Amino acid sequence: MPASYAYLGPEGTFTEVALRTLPEAATRELIPYVSVQSALDAVRAGEAEAAFVPIENSVEGGITTTLDELVAGTPLMIYREVLLSITFALLVRPGTTLSDIKTVTAHPAAQPQVRNWMKANLPDVVWESAASNADGARLVQEGRYDAAFAGEFAAARYGLEALETGIHDAENAQTRFVLVGRPARPAAPTGADKTSVVLWQRDDHPGGLRDLLGEFATRGINLMLLQSRPTGAGIGNYCFCVDAEGHISDRRVAEALMGLKRICLQVRFLGSYPRADVRPEEVRPVLPGTSDEEFVSAADWVARCQDGRF
Question: Which range among 62-71, 180-189, 193-202, 297-306 shows the weakest confidence by mean pLDDT?
């Protein structure tokens, strides 16, 4: 396996900035790819050790392109996550003024984060989506568009200047990125972990989603992301992407996954990995007996009963 990380490029994306915060990135060749799909396919094909891609932002929620790629195709696994605070700059060719701007571009995930600013400052400008924010900057450099929303750090890379900086509709906006590789044994638990899965129902019935969520709730496991995605099998057919507090080696998390495996048509394990915010998971006693210690104690009791030692 080559000692390289693929990432959503080109150079100058927020993804690259977030990737370089990982200590191991200094020891890998970092290779930009034109899309999330191509970066993940590089891992599946053995061309890269891992891929680093955006998966969620605090304004719009899950990044559907990444979620759909993890839902379908050859299974991959999340190993790390990074949170990056996001503010945009309006990048233009030197000499451009606001009144000159008729077209603007950026990654689709950027639009909800600058929509109100555009309404107030560029109400008549035409928006066109780009493969990434840095690719939008490149297209402005080439003269395809008048301006791009991107990181201010991308201006020098593409010979542009920041006409406006600090652009954001929501204070403290963040994007979450994940390091994705081929399936392997999860890293040891840290006490501040997250487990990600995809769930498919056996059939559509009243209370179906409640049944899935109940496997977490009865064990006091908090969910951090719940997003439905169409399966492609027709209107009304969805799977559910879930991030839960805890690690698969935690007894209560393992038992929740076993319960889901029993009742679901399919469960795809996407990994257990350290939380970027380093907040330890908290057992919420929705029902008595939801601590890991109580799950271990109950399992020991069953074992003693099986051995006639009760």
Answer: 297-306
**CB 72, CB 66: distance < 8 Å:** no
Quick: pLDDT tens for 85-135. Answer: 999 999 999 999 999 999 999 999 899 999 999 999 999 999 999 989 999
Q: If residue 304 lies in a helix (H) or strand (E), which one and from where to where?
A: helix 292-306
- Strand locations in 191-279 (E): 193-201, 223-230, 238-245, 264-274
Structure tokens at 55: 């998966």
Q: Is there a cis peptide before residue 285, judged by omega within 30 degrees of 0?
A: no
User: What is the rounded distance in angstroms from the CA atom of residue 136 to the CA atom of residue 147?
Assistant: 8
- Rounded Cα distance between 115 and 11, Å, is 25
Count CA atoms within 13 Å of residue 95 on its CB side. 1
Residue 243 CA to residue 196 CA, distance in Å, equals 4
| Number of CB atoms found within 10 A of residue 17's CB | 17
pTM for the whole structure: 0.85
Sheet containing strand 88-92, strands side by side = 126-129, 103-106, 147-150, 88-92, 161-167
Please tell me the distance from the alpha carbon of residue 274 to that of residue 244, in angstroms, as a whole number: 12
Taking the chain, what is the end-to-end CA distance rounded to the nearest angstrom? 51
Is 103 exposed, middle or buried, given 0-12, 13-18 or 19+ CB atoms closer than 10 A? middle
d(CA 295, CA 276): 27
